[in-house]
Structure formats: C-alpha cells, structure tokens
Amino acid sequence: MTAPLRGLLSCDPAVATSGVTLLADALRAQAVPVTETQWQPPLDGTLEPLTRVMADRRRSEANALALQRMTSSGAELVDVRPASEALGLERGTFLHAGPPIEWDRASGPLRGALVGAMLFEGMAQTPEAAEAVLARGGVVLEPCHHRGGVGPMAGVVSPSMWVYELRDEVYGHTSWCSLNEGLGRVLRYGAFGPAVIERLHWMSSVLGPLLQQAVRSGGPFDIKALVAQMLQMGDEGHNRNRAGSLLLLRDLLPPLIAADGTAGDIAQVVRFCGANEHFFLNVGMPACKLSTLAAEGIPGSSVVTTMARNGTDFGIRTAGTGDRWFTGPANTPEGLFLGDFGPGDANPDIGDSAITETAGIGGFAMAAAPAIVRFVGGDVRQALRATQTMYEITVGEHTAYQVPILEFRGTPTGIDVAAVARTGILPQINTGMAGRVAGTGQVGAGLVTPPVQCFTAALQALAAAAEG
Questions:
Q1: Which CATH architecture has domain 75-286?
Q2: Over residues 67-71, mean pLDDT
C-alpha cells in the first residue's frame, strides 16, 4: 500500500543527500536547503569481519551494558599516596603510558622521562649513566594501564612519586594517576634537567604529603560531579581544565589550609596548584579510567575501553577482547606550536590522556569548550563538528556529561569498533605535543586521530570470537 502524496507540492521540500556533492550543489544553486550526510564504504578489508561482528547475537545487548556501566560508574578522590605504597611499585620498576614497549623502540620523550626517573630515584648520577642502565634492560618497564592507572604524556611513574587514588564504589574499582607538574619543561614531556628533578623532589616531600592530609580530612571528593560541572563551564576535560582546576582547588583549600605544615609550604602548594591550569587533568584521567574499567570483560561487546600511546605505538583494547592490545604507528598531532618550535620538532602522539576521549569527554566534548580551538588550532565550527561527528561512532550518550550548546545533549560515549570500520570515522583526540628529542619538553598542542590499523585488527579479533 502506497502512502498518499497529497500536499507534497504545497510545502517546502526537505532534502538529504549522500555521496558525491553534485546533487547537493545543484539544489543549493536553486535555493533549496540541503542536509548532506557523510558516507563512505567500510574500511578496506573489513567487510567480512564487519558482517560477522554486526551479526553477533550478543553485540547489541553487550554494547548497551557497556554504555550503562560506563555512565553509571562513580569516581571519588579518596587518597594521595606514594606509588610504592599505592601500587606496590618496587625499586627498578617504572610505569609508562601507552601499550607495552622496550627501550630500543622508545620515543625521545619517553626516553627522556625514564632518564629523569632514574635520576630522581638515585639509580644513576648522570643522564649518560641512566641511559646505559636502561639500554641494557636494567629496569622493568610496564604500562600504567596494566596496573589500572593512567599517566599523562610519557606517563612515567617511579616508586617514590606520589599518585592520586580514585575509587568507584559502584563497581568496586580503583584507579590512580601521578600528580601534575605544570607545563613546559617537565618530566612527562621528556625533560630531565636539574630543575625538573628538583621539582619532583619537592612534589614528593611537600606537595604530596599536604595533598594527602587535605584529601584524607576533607574527602572523599566526587570527581565525576566536577567533570559534569566543568563541561557546563567551558572545559572539555583534556586540554582545557581551567574550570575543573578551580573547582577542585575550591574543595581542597579548606582542609589544605588547616593541614599540619608550615605556612610557607602551604602557601607554596596553593600557589603551585592555583597557577596550574591542568591541575585537574590528573584526577580527571583516572576518573575516566574508572568509567572504562566498568565496561571491561563483556563478551560480544565492541566498545573500546582503552586508547593509549607511548610515542611510538598507538594501542586500543575493547570490552570484548580483554587485555589484548591492538596497535599501529602513532600519528603526529597537527596544531599550534610554542615559540620557535615547528612540525619537525613534534614527536608522534604520546600519553594515556586519550582515556578522556575513550570515556566521552576531551575531543568528544569539544563543542562544550569552543575556546579550546585557540590552543589546539581550528575554529569554533570545527569544535562543534568534532562532537557531532563522534555521535556516529559511539553507542550512546553520557547521562551525566552534557553539552550546553547542543541543548544539553549527553556527550558521545562508548566508541564502537564496528561503527568506526563501517563509517571510516576515527576518534578525534586533542592533545599536547612533546618534543621529538629527549629533554626538550612541550612544543605545542594539536589534534590527532588513531591509526586505522588499531580498529581493523580489533575488528578481526571480535569477528573471530563472534557468535552467529
């Protein structure tokens, strides 16, 4: 039975086009409003595995469960402790960002951060001596993610460094992250000069213990609630954390001022935290990690639970494939540079901070923070388009994290490997850029996407495990 066409010619047409732009351009030339949809064939070589994954009878329910767990998980800051105590990290074991890697393949910034950690721990007296130990395999290297944590940029954590400890009381998980050093020439960007080491010692002897007192006496602090608030105040949670940092400092100040310490030390800590616009990032990241931890281990789910990079490789993991990494060569971000630095100075993408995008904020929430484009490049329309496009590769929207300019629509959450393969759209990440040469520090900030190989490999693994 055909639908009646009565009135079709008496109202304005609503036209949507797909594919080549010739038809859309012709209609616009006649003043006809057109909505263009982006469409392209599935990624090369993915048709057969994509068909198997899409036909997996568990997938729809499993992905819905992954989204439900990600959005309902909690994230409270409960403690600040040395990594040796919080993680059982032993002398000679260093954690790093991204998938597993050895010294001979490590990037410049990762090598620089490892050298700095050796100097900080007193395991070497000179950078040359540190490199010699690292080159002969004299230490154990392990990804932060393997211990349920995250590390920004190089992500190097050694036993004497202090970490934030966050807890998800809903699903019973714990995550952690190192304390933020500020910007510029810092360890996480691969710098290891005397000023870097001196700052690390101050953070372990003054900053960490005072923050510990503040958190233990004034906490726990609901970090998930702060993320929701900061998105309403112009942050996106990855490269823009101004509002979040102020909100966190607001909560920490009363117990911090009352802590058992000298007035000079407390004032120095307040100044250090207040001057650091990324102070919040290092609690926001483990909050996001708790979200993705809640979605791990769901058979049949094609939702991404980890995106991380070590400066050489980009790796992802999914809810349906457990701890298995799927990797490809890390791309180099494109964006804005500091001072006289340029594209030739930038290292390929590095850091665990893409956990923010994995959990539905960061580059996925750029529409909530249009001012971010002044830091990473692009324009306001690009920020809006980035968030709107990410809805096409995610399984749903976050119930707590909302975007005001999109009528308070929830942020796109739960990256679907199958949707990435089907559409060819890759996750949008905004990030800092580390210098290619060890010891350089930060050279800029920009936008980047993962290598496609991560998703095609994950799709193959999901297809192999699919149930017809």
A1: Alpha-Beta Complex (3.90)
A2: 98
